[in-house]
Amino acid sequence: xxxxxxxxxxxxxHKITSALTILGVSLVVFVFAAVLMMSTxxxxxxxxxxxxxxxxxxxxxxxxxxxxxxxxxxxxxxxxSPEIAVATDGLPLFTKxxxxxxxxxxxxxxxxxxxxxxxxxxxxxxxxPNATLVEGRMWREGTSEIIAGKxxxxxxxxxxxxxxxxxxxxxxxxxGILDAGGSGFDSELWGDIDQxxxxxxxxxxxxxxxxxxxxxxxxxxxxxxxxxxRLPLEVKREKEYYAxxxxxxxxxxxxxxxxxxxxxxxxxxxGAMITMFAAVANRTREIGTLRxxxxxxxxxxxxxxxxAMLIALAGGILGIAAAATLSFVRISMTNWDTFSELxxxxxxxxxxxxxxxxxAVVMGFIGGVLPAVRASMKRIVDSLRAV
Amino acid sequence: MKLLKLxxxxxFRHRLRTSLTILGLALAVVAFGLIxxxxxAWYSQAAAAAPDRLVxxxxxxxxxxLPLSYKEQLLKIDGVEQVTYGNWFGGVYxxxxxxxxxxxxxxxxxxxxxxxxxxxxxxxxxxLGERRAALVGRALADRFGWKVGDMITLIGTIYPGDWDFxxxxxxxxxxxxxxEGTFYFHWEYVDEAMKQQMPGRAGQIGWFVLQIDNPDRAAxxxxxxxxRFSNSWAETLxxxxxxxTLSFIQFAAAIIAGLRVVSVLIxxxxxxxxxxxxxxxxxxxxxEYAFMKTLGFRSYHLIxxxxxxxxxxxxxxGIVGIGLLALVARLVAAALSNYLxxxxxxxxxxxxxxxxxxxxGLAAAIFPIQRAIRIRIVEGLRVVD
Lengths: 387, 385
Description:
The structure holds 2 protein chains of 2 kinds. Chain A is built from 13 helices and 12 strands.
């Protein structure tokens, strides 16, 4: 075996060429990792929105709350289900909510975006253990007061604490800020459901959410409600319901990103190939000497392959390091499943690091294999004679 | 002239390296071009908008509806010549993955305002004459293998129940960028069902399309419409068709912005590949440059030599890339024809690619030129590789 230090020193020796190749690989890895981080961030944000013990009810085949409609009589039947947990006040831990989209203007650039307004009840906050009121106070019953998710308060005109925003032919005052720990509720406005139903002239609910006293009773409850001919409804675990909403957008982002990364990678592989062919050509005599000293063709092949993979690995690490800085970036975009704005962070996971590094090393391997084979095929006499 | 010959000879001294560099550049140019084409195709819908059409919708957001009674009032507004309307249906065909837009429209007026949709007259007559009839785009019909006379069922997400349709016509677009992926059917079909099941939801309209007499008066007419309905229960927002379409396209703004960043990074990769080659070349030829200097060649000769080679490689790479792009784009367009219309490489992309080749060729030569000029003859001749 040719010692690894030989390979490492060769890389260091050709500073500029190695650095250019490493940079090329790192750019590709950066894009690859960034795309994965984006779709993971989107998915994780929605997964974190739902809670395991909660169930959500929407109208059959309506996919999301946006399309769902539940009349009052159906809501009342569901409310009597014995599986529902009891709140501290002795009433069922159950909420009827409405979910509507309104167009608001971005505070900074004036762009329009669809924002979720949720008409909620006094149990809504208790049902969402990830959401707490961090500033101000809760809305008072019977008033045009609302509380705003953290992301919405920062980004939309009129949604900060103490400001007023107009929708549904009324002015609403923001009296509190909701911190939902980076989940989807950070991107919503909450107000009294009765006021919202009145303002939007909507006499029906969008969804029903409740806590299960015993999470294992979910299947029995779901089957009973879905089989009830009076109830054209669908019951889902809250966590699954929200996780499903990330499908279209996260899927689209990963597919598009993967395609771009692969085409992009081809160019970087060619760059690595150029570097390695040059390395082989420059070291022809060295290769001859190594062979004369008794190193086998295989160890020459390995040494050059290792060199290519090490260069790519360095590029991979650099690319990941650059992508890691994106973790501090919070972006906001429309989630196509719900047609509404959702704020989320780029999220780096060990799985992404592993995949990105693997991607880099594979690039190095593909770029290095042909030059390495060429190096190992050289005949001793010819290469010693080379000038 | 001699210099030109030298440039060419030099470029082909390392045939493998030069061809690989050209290949690398060409691939990167293809990636760059595909991204630009994708962005252009994404915005082409807005480009297909007509200047003499306005869209009126509920001011709060597109999910709220307007009463049908607005139609008569809209027609009375000065400058409005014709009014049609539609609703988003949002049904699922077999599986939610099979997404395509479905519009419940006023059959008699809609296609008057949208002359770019071309239907055979007998198919159009058949469509008008039947309540459950649907008129679908050529691309959509191809996607699912539908023929005239086929029965299909959509599961309503917004309007409950299973909805049966008969395909009575297939429309094609007048222009390349006209959308051929939409499913049109009678607004009355949905409305009659709503009247029976959910009377509160009958007579509701998602948006009105207004044909106006003069595109220059679009802003004034929009204001007149919105003032007419201000302080009512359903306030309106009226804008040009282009602005309306853009507000939907805008939903992918974050992704488009990301793609723009990537296309800049690709230029970076092109530069790195070429710079790598040029640096290697310069290193190998240091003694040669020193030798040329002793023979009386001046610095500007060396600059010309190196710059010439850099430009030669970058432009050949760029041109090969443009050629490949035209081919690949056609393949991608065919593969995506069901989902994305107007996937054609815009002319500006070809110019951008050439501009990139120029900038990259220039930038990659800077470092080798510095080295060649600075080299002292004695040192250069002493170099042994």
